[in-house]
Amino acid sequence: MRKGPKADIAVVDIFQRALSAKRESKYIEFKSTFDPSSAGEWCELIKDIVSIANSGGGIILFGVDSEGSPTGDSIKEISDIDPAEIGNKIAKYTGPVDVEFTIHELNKQSHSLIAFVVRSVSVPVVFQKPGTYDIGEGKQKTAFSKGTVYFRHGAKSEPGTSEDIRQSIERHLDLVRKSWLKGVRKVVEAPSDTQFVAVRALAKPLAGNVFDSVVRVVNDPNATPVRLTRDRSQATGSFVHEEVSEAIFDEINNVIDANRVLGKGQQRFLLGQPIYYRVYAERQHVTQTETNVALLFHSGAIQFYAPSLFWLQALPKEHVAEIFLEIYLNPVSPNIHFLIKSAIILGEEFSDWLFNKWHLKWANHPQPPSFYWRFKEMIGRAKTEDMRLVATKTSPTSLIIVGDESVTVSTLMDKPERAAALLSRACMRVFEGAKAEMRSIARQLDFISYGAAVRERGSELTEAIIRTVGDQVAGAANEVDDKTP
Known about the structure:
The protein is an alpha+beta fold. It has helices spanning 9-20, 39-54, 76-79, 83-94, 162-188, 242-263, 273-281, 290-303, 309-314, 317-329, 335-346, 348-362, 370-382, 387-392, 409-414, 416-431, 437-456, 458-469, and strands at 2-3, 28-31, 58-62, 101-108, 111-118, 132-136, 139-142, 150-153, 156-159, 195-197, 214-216, 399-402, 405-408. Strands 1-4-5-3-2 form a 5-stranded mixed sheet. The two termini are 49 Å apart.
């Protein structure tokens, strides 16, 4: 926060827009006066500042009426407010978050005005305490509630929606993309004898640290290719720019943090299925705690029946076992189909154990659930076919089509890294509103991409799941076929 008359070009532009505006908007708020001694006016101001910051930034103009005309009222009390005091007031309700704004003196029609220019935040600010104040006669009013996220809807500051969160993510991803492209341009335009040094990340990603390497940009066609990557398996001979790559994907991690705050301990992804797919499209860049990755796995496998094997293959066996136990005890559609397909991937020992559990429960039942018979048939196929073909219900010649790219399953099985890249494209198309069929394709690509990595952990995961389940009896089935798109 700072107070001063100077402003950059972007700020000057918003000054002009605010001074010429005839009404309030998403980015412009008018206030005729402000009483620093009023708790109610402070709460309403804080709500507007946070809402504007969450919505991409904007301006609050003091000393004008609802049509933007100067009122002539004194603004001295506003201009005398210490910016640090405003910051402390905000932090009282939001916690120690970084909400930036500057205070400027303007002039319109020979009247002095005060402008608060609020900058956009990288992750939506959540109120940690309610903004409740007295309105007289023993009554109270709440400007905002604990756990709410406010955005601007037209000229109003209101609780946010999933669409607001999605737009916030896209807005800041656009900014970091531009920063990334600017960095790439510097690399491309650098002199041919320039050296670039890969810097090890300060924080250890879930998948591990990258290797240090030095490469030189030259015109030699036989030189080692330069690749922007944070993937350890591809780091040899690669150019790694940690500052840029961290910035690109900070927003993905910020989204997960925001979900954690909103969820208050719930094992649910509250921002909705499209946002989950957007996160999964950038899954390799999630540098979260095991707890957060377990939440993502739980949400993908149980809440959305969405791609989630990347989280599974990276999690400790104890986390995986707890989530499999939940599905085992509550075998409802569609997550029961995730359990069946994962069982095939884990291998024969786990598949036989799970089928025997279900056999004890339903063998003498007059009408066992259909997935019982389907699982039995899949176990038989898995003895002679590749586990990934059985899990995805495909053949080697089946085509996977995402946009204008069409690839056979056999090709993708031989090149799981290509399958993973195609999986990211499919997840992005789901996020962008593609037909429901694309979700099914994304699940197939997930098993093709990470099935082999999960199988490598088959023995340890099988042992952990069997130990966690113990003597517990399988839950009652909710009879619904796997027709979920």
